[in-house]
Amino acid sequence: MKTLTLAIANQKGGVGKTTTTVSLAAALAVNGFRVLLVDSDPQGNATGSLGINKRALNVSLYDVLVESRSPNEVIISTVRERLDVLPASVELAGAEVELSDVEDNERTFRLRTELEVIRKNYDFILIDCPPSLGQLTLNALCAADGVLIPIQCEYLALEGLTQLKETIDLVVGSPLNPKLVIFGIVMTMYDGRTNLALQVVEEVKRYFPDQIFATVVPRSVRLSEAPSYGKSILEYDPSSRGALAYKALAKEVEARANHASQ
Length: 262
What we know:
By secondary structure, this protein is of the alpha/beta class. It has helices at 17-30, 45-49, 61-65, 71-74, 95-99, 104-108, 110-118, 135-143, 155-172, 195-207, 221-225, 233-236, 241-261, and strands spanning 4-8, 35-39, 76-77, 83-86, 124-128, 146-152, 181-190, 212-218.
């Protein structure tokens, strides 16, 4: 299987984007794949969720994008076998402004160019995007083979999906990344006791029947607790409903990746 780079994106916050990135990365690594998690969100929540002290970092993704540091100088090998992190720090917020002074093509392709250097070292590269459609997200979309979209099982989440789909269409319809695809949509924070959750899932299935994953991630206190311990849900509570859901999602992602490679 060739390396697959996925941008985990949704400009609406609070949809389980970082939880999905961290949990999926951990599950794929447990399954034997070499995984790089790229934290492209200035909040650095993915970095912190894996127990890395983002305030103590000397270098981060900011230095790769703005200071032209090699990713090899910045990537951190975690205590988890086969899972590395290209971390974020608060300085990354400044990258949005500083990249605006760079020429258009170089600015937009900066992340893609840098990831090409280390791409062969990994089976999966997962990019945790910020909850916006600025330069950092655009860089991720240009670097990715596909977009994995987490959607919270609430009505307003559908509006965010529409906006993101329009952005993806703009990227695909331009020279930026015409091969970009919606790799998959995963429904998160699902509460089967509510009619609304069921309706939102059915609505997404109606519009994106081929992209939606069969796995639905439940609303779970354990998923919310895990980051405060610097652990993925697979480490924090491997038998919980959330952990089992992300293990199942990893299997689906693997199957789609294999199909895409054929």
